[in-house]
Every structure is written in structure tokens, then in C-alpha cells.
Amino acid sequence: MTTSSTFGHPRWGLQFHWWAVDPSGQVGLFYSAFGPVPTAANTHVAAMDGATGQARARHPEWFDWICHEDSEECPQTHCPITLDRGPYLFTWDEETDDRYTRFGIPKEPLLASESPEWLARAASLIETDFLFERAARVDLGYPAGQELLSGSDPH
User: If you average pLDDT over residues 60-69, what whole number do you get?
Assistant: First the structure.
């Protein structure tokens, strides 16, 4: 993958988690080792890392999920999982289409307004104009020099 100098990542090649909130206040957790991250995530690495560390300690199931499908047909980065309560989960997919793919769907979505301050603060740094529940894919681009985070559902 060739990455534009416009795209940034605070620890290229190492897992970095960033948080966002959608218009309904639902929280999304994004996994990226090689994909671009929004400017606000790069600017506020300490806030993202702090929220990730505290969330991992309190909710390991958001991070330590297991793919129950046949690993040959369902690589772990695409294996759909269901959480009882939590954020929507997205991971960078550099192998097939260079975008974030939703793989975790909560039965009860986590709302920023009901989250601890440390998590709500990190998530509110990146506000989307699309709903996570309707976005199976998320693209990060820079048309006309402006950052654009967009969601789509291929179905």
C-alpha cells in the first residue's frame, strides 16, 4: 500500500486505537496498525492511548475477542463479533480494500453521554456525520485538501 504524506499514523506498524462518536452519540473504537488515522487522533495520541488503556483494563472483551469462524475463510480482522454492551468496532483492512471495516456490533451501543469522562472526551475529539450502525465500511480521505471521514454500507 502506498500512503499519501497527508495520511498519518502515530506508530506505523504497531496497533493504535482511536475513538470517535457518531451523530446519535454512539461510540466507535477503531483498530489501526497500518491505516491512516484522523488528524485529531494524531494530535491527541495521549488522550486516545489513555482512553484505550483504561477501557482495556475495564472491558477486555472490546480488545481480546476471539474469532469463532474457520480462520481460513474468516480472517480475524473480518470475523464478525457481537458485544453485549460496548462500542462499534472497526479495523483497518489493508489486504482487500484499504478502508476500515466494521466487525463488532454491540447489542446495546455505548453512548458517549453514558461513558466515563476519559472515554467521552477521547471519542468527542472525532465526530462523524454518519451512524456507526449503518456504516459497514469507513473511508478516510482528503478530497480538496480537507479531511473527510465517510461511512457506507455496501448492501
Answer: 73
